[in-house]
Amino acid sequence: MGTWVMEEALRTLQAWEASGAGHPRIAVNVAAAQLQHPDALGELRARIVDSGFNPRQIEIELTESEFIDPTPKMLENLQA
After folding, report:
1. How many whole angstroms separate alpha carbon 8 and alpha carbon 4?
2. What is the mean pLDDT of residues 66-75?
3. How far apart are CA 80 and CA 63, in angstroms?
4. pTM of the prediction?
5. pLDDT of residue 33
6. Exposed, middle or buried: residue 28 (CB in 10 Å: 0-12, 13-18, 19+)?
7. H/E stretch holding 60
8. How many CA atoms, within 13 angstroms, populate the side-chain half-sphere of residue 68?
9. What are the backbone dihedrals phi and psi of residue 24, each rounded to the nearest 5 degrees, phi first?
10. CA 36 to CA 21: how far, in whole Å?
11. Contact 26/63 with Cβ under 8 angstroms?
């Protein structure tokens, strides 16, 4: 699900730019479970780089509840 959501967000961003909206930003909700995946950060970076967008156009959102019991891998990915 997470990969599909990110790809849809990037397609939406592309459509906005194509419609003349300039260079808008888009926010994408990411679940804590995704951040626990060993290569979560690598996958996220690859999708953004492949899209050609400036990474500053993509905002990653997490809910506060995600931080109640963070795993070491999640914290590592957040710091990176």
Report:
1. 6
2. 76
3. 18
4. 0.68
5. 74
6. middle
7. strand 58-61
8. 4
9. -70, 165
10. 34
11. no
